[in-house]
UniProtKB/TrEMBL annotation, chain A:
PROSITE patterns in the record: PROKAR_LIPOPROTEIN
UniProt entry tagged with the keyword Signal: yes
Signal peptide: 1-23
Record-given protein name: ABC transporter substrate-binding protein
Length: 322, 663
């Protein structure tokens, strides 16, 4: 019986584990607590993608909080970047992208061609992307806000990372950006350097304003930080429809984005009350900035921040639930 | 960890007709002269630089392949039923354990078994598989996870790791056995395993998520790809090294092949195989944070989130939790393997006392499981004592203070290294015309290792050219070389000190052991806090990852220098400096060369992770390819270029080590 020599211990362990697994299924005594206010309709699981910027987080958690507290949904937040979130609509893993910035290529692929996703209307937020400088610079060098003068100031923005070129600070590599192409096509003597995240961008702008250091970088609105340091936007060649069609040849400013909601087709057809909530959800840039500030500047847990705003804005929330 | 831990079986033989030393010195000088001259005259021409948004035909083709797969996933039988089946199976298993142990089992507000039951069960399991010491370690570690505030994430990570390792064993053991018994299988599988270990996970993360979905299944598959090779290799190695005489003896007794495998080879290789499982487990943990980017459950999530929001305190605390888990799993599997060996020798498991303790412990565990299903306090990990918040606040305050106080020091250090070392070297490598640079690399490969690495390098350079990312590859080579240089210098200083001073050795060695168990992602946290994002930051993280192994190798080498030589030198009245430079280091040359080789490979495996904190070059492209749909092909091409660069440097270093380490 050589092969059972060291077996009994393991065998016993297995037996106990198996027994436990069975016992586990036998039903426990902790009452199944209802998760929310117990709405009438069946909601079930509601998967919200979380893209990596605070404004997005604010919208997602407000919708999620309302869905779980009013509709009794089992809300799950999934931390993924934009592209991955769109992909996930194909296999029922993501129900909604609550704040979408343009992404015409993805719309074509997943809405028109594959039909796994569809649009669910505007969030009411207006999105602006551009190059910004701290306010002290706009005051000291008034003509810096015209892109034609940027080469004149390039030396000022040199860092050890950009070498003999000026540094243009970008955010997370996943953000919507044409900056590498813009620098090349506008013949700017700049190099794009990635800060890595929204938080790193904010920290850099905050320091630049406080220490009166030169900095130019990618930034966007709606953005709570603008209330703390009102960054000034640099004018790029004006946007015309279609001028950004080829990502390699872009030489114009970013369009003004009507931020919209994207839902999985299966989710839209499921009859879930959460879908109606998503469709009706609309608020302003100021609303989002309030919640974003709770999270980023005041260090609140996103769910608490959402709760605080919802409690204070019952009328708006009620309109989404009609 | 990539290509490193594999036992190096074939030792390359030094080539016949290798240039003698003096001639070689001249040749190196001449190569550098030509290089510098070419750089001075032709700088900036034919650098093959590709703008950030520009794509080559190859990149677009890769994008097209991805789109075809994307479109096929709803219609193809293979994707729907085979891939879909696998991912549903994995998801189901992971979700089952999550609802049992870590996540609320809807409609219950808590898991089926609460924290108290989980602690009791796992502690008991550690005792059953290893010994009371391991049980104590597991007990304390689990309580720490909870009081650091990461109970759910920790148990999630444990589940994902366990499932990945279990599949690893199921696939890896037979594959390893097959490789040990068939030369042809070895020849066919070795390049595949090489590729699995060197191809950065980031490069295939997005397509994986496309097929296996966002969540546990993708996380497990990603982990599997990276963690399987060490297990296969070590298993094959273990079985191969069972003494041929033993095998002969059993065969002469008339055992069949299968019997020989089951009764002789497997039991004798058991210890080695458990080492393989241990390596596999460590590899799985180091993938945790990367898997978090496709929403893989576990401790990687809070680390990734905290890095994103620059919350150094939280990143530190969740990083510590990963380290604790690494130490817990590492020590427990090691103890289990020792126990297995002891039992195999003694022939009987434990004594009567052990059985009594096991039985009683099992009963207690069962009672606690019942309690944890019944009472809320035993189901949800208590919020107090809360070690996480004060620790995180403390670390945040400390880093804030450090960063403001040391801002000038850290910035000038960063600028000094960047301006004095990184930028000039980058210009030398990346601004030299590609054909000249390629020739220079080949010349070095020949001078260091002979013809064979030169041929391999030529193939790798062609692959890199084919990816269209020559310029970015040279930038990555720059940071890799700078980091390796710093690793070797620090390892020399600390290693020599440890080798000469016993007390220093006893003080530092446990620290190095602990550092080696830390998954590479964790190194980003302090580096990012001190230096924000830059190439230097990525270098610092890579150095921190490479120094422990290199230091230990050098210390062991110095220690291994024969005492009689040292005595003789001392009698001749040498100074300490002479002793180090004339006696100990030359005699420990093999160790120094090996340390440099390993240091280089560890640094190289940090390239992509460094891309997350400003590393630039190929690492950044891989990260960007994961993030932007139109850059996917470019990112994948960058992954291929990293693999080619890694194989090239590995082979040059290996052949050079064989030649110089021996002399």
């Amino acid at each position: 019986m050589g092969r059972h020599r060291s077996g009994p211990v393991r065998l016993a362990a297995l037996a106990v584990l198996a027994g436990l697994a069975l016992a586990g299924c036998g039903g426990g005594d902790i009452e199944s607590a209802p998760t929310g206010g117990g709405g009438g309709e069946e909601c079930g699981e509601f998967d919200i993608a979380i893209n990596p910027w605070v404004g997005y987080e604010a919208s997602a958690h407000v919708v999620g909080y309302v869905a779980s507290s009013r509709l009794g949904c089992d809300v799950e937040y999934k931390n993924v970047k934009e592209e991955v979130a769109w992909q996930g609509m194909g296999n029922d893993e993501i129900d909604v992208v609550i704040e979408n910035w343009g992404h015409d290529d993805l719309k074509k692929k997943y809405i028109e061609d594959q039909g796994i996703a569809q649009e669910a209307g505007s969030t009411g937020n207006v999105g602006i992307i551009g190059w910004y400088v701290p306010p002290w610079m706009a005051e000291e060098y008034p003509d810096i806000t015209d892109w034609k003068n940027l080469n004149k100031y390039a030396d000022m923005f040199q860092t050890s990372e950009s070498g003999d070129k000026g540094q243009l600070l970008d955010g997370d590599p996943s953000f919507v950006t044409n900056d590498e192409a813009l620098v090349k096509n506008l013949d700017l003597n700049y190099e794009v350097v990635y800060a890595g995240s929204e938080a790193a961008l904010i920290q850099a702008f905050r320091q630049a304003e406080a220490n009166k250091e030169p900095l130019i970088g990618y930034f966007y609105e709606p953005q709570w930080f603008m209330a703390e340091v009102p960054l000034v936007k640099v004018d790029l060649p004006p946007y015309k429809p279609g001028c950004d069609a080829d990502p390699e040849k872009v030489a114009c400013d970013y369009p003004e984005y009507d931020l919209d909601k994207i839902v999985a087709t299966d989710f839209a057809k499921s009859g879930s009350p959460a879908y109606d909530l998503v469709k009706n959800f609309q608020w302003t840039n100021d609303d989002q900035n309030v919640v974003a500030k709770y999270i980023a500047a005041d260090g609140m847990d996103p769910e608490e921040a959402a709760e605080k705003w919802v409690e204070a804005n019952q009328d708006k929330v009620d309109a989404w639930l009609k | 960890m990539s290509v490193l831990d594999r036992p190096r079986v074939e030792e390359p033989v030094p080539e016949v007709g290798a240039p003698p030393r003096l001639k070689r010195g001249w040749a190196v000088g001449a190569t550098i002269f030509v290089w510098l001259g070419g750089w001075a005259l032709l700088r900036g021409t034919a650098t093959l630089e590709l703008g950030g948004a520009e794509l080559t035909g190859f990149h677009q083709w890769l994008n097209g392949v991805r789109d075809d797969f994307d479109a096929a996933r709803d219609t193809s039988f293979f994707f729907q039923y085979v891939i879909g089946g696998i991912s549903t199976a994995i998801d189901t298993v992971v979700t089952f354990f999550q609802e049992l142990l870590s996540q609320p089992a809807f409609p219950r507000p808590v898991p089926e078994i609460g924290w108290l039951g989980v602690v009791a069960l796992l502690t008991w399991l550690a005792y059953a598989l290893a010994a009371w010491r391991s049980a104590l370690l597991v007990f304390v570690s689990l309580l720490l996870f909870g009081s650091l505030g990461y109970w759910t994430d920790s148990i999630d990570l444990l589940i994902v790791t366990a499932v990945a390792v279990a599949i690893c064993v199921v696939i890896g053991l037979p594959t390893g056995i097959w490789m040990a018994r068939s030369k042809r299988a070895t020849a066919a599988l070795t390049p595949v395993l090489d590729l699995m270990q060197t191809m950065p996970a980031f490069a295939y993360l997005a397509p994986l998520a496309l097929f296996f979905g966002i969540g546990p299944a993708s996380a497990v598959v990603t982990t599997l790809i990276y963690a399987l090779p060490p297990l296969v290799r070590i298993t094959a190695h273990g079985i191969r090294t069972v003494a041929p005489t033993t095998l002969e003896a059993s065969r002469s007794l008339g055992t069949t092949d299968v019997q020989a495998l089951r009764k002789v080879q497997l039991p004798m290789a058991k210890r080695t195989i458990i080492v393989g499982v241990n390596q596999c487990m460590m590899a799985a943990l180091s993938m945790a944070t990367i898997a978090a980017l496709i929403n893989g459950p576990g401790l990687g999530q809070p680390v990734a989130q905290a890095l994103q929001s620059l919350d150094i305190g939280s990143a530190f605390v969740s990083g510590i939790a990963i380290v604790i888990m690494a130490i817990m799993l590492d020590r427990t599997t090691t103890a289990a393997s020792q126990r297995a060996e002891k039992e195999a020798r003694a022939g009987r498991a434990g004594g009567r006392r052990r059985w009594v303790v096991l039985g009683a412990g099992g009963a207690v565990a069962l009672v606690l499981v019942y309690v944890s299903r019944t009472y809320l306090w035993a189901a949800e990990f208590p919020e107090r004592p809360d070690l996480g918040t004060p620790l995180s606040d403390g670390v945040t305050q400390l880093t804030d203070w450090l960063v403001t106080t040391l801002e000038n020091v850290t910035n000038s250090l960063k600028d000094l290294v960047t301006y004095a070392l990184i930028n000039p070297l980058e210009s030398l490598l990346a601004d030299t015309p590609w054909w000249l640079m390629g020739l220079v690399i080949l010349a070095f490969a020949y001078l260091l290792g002979g013809w064979r690495p030169t041929a391999i390098s030529a193939v790798c350079l062609l692959v890199i050219l084919g990816t269209g990312l020559w310029n970015e590859t040279m930038k990555t080579l720059t940071t890799t070389l700078v980091a390796t240089l710093i690793v070797i210098l620090s390892a020399l200083v600390v290693g020599v000190w440890m080798g000469r001073n016993h007390r220093a050795d006893t003080a530092i060695r446990p620290l190095l052991d602990a550092l080696q168990t830390i998954p590479p992602f964790v190194y980003l946290v302090p580096a990012l806090a001190l230096f924000s994002t830059s190439r230097f930051t990525a270098i610092v993280a890579a150095v921190a990852y490479g120094v422990p192994i290199a230091t230990k190798l050098i210390a062991d080498g110095i220690r291994g220098v024969s005492p009689t030589s040292v005595e003789a030198a001392r009698a001749a009245g040498t100074t300490a400096w002479q002793m180090i430079s004339k006696v100990q280091l030359p005699m420990a040359r093999a160790a120094v060369v090996l340390a440099s080789n390993q240091g280089l490979l560890y640094v190289l495996s940090m390239v992509v992770i460094g891309g997350l904190v400003g590393g630039g070059g190929l690492g950044y492209l891989v990260v960007a390819g994961f993030s932007q749909a139109q850059l996917f092909g470019k990112g994948l091409a960058a992954g291929i270029a990293i693999t080619a660069l890694g194989i090239m440097l590995d082979r040059i270093a290996q052949y050079a080590a064989a030649r110089y380490g021996r002399a």
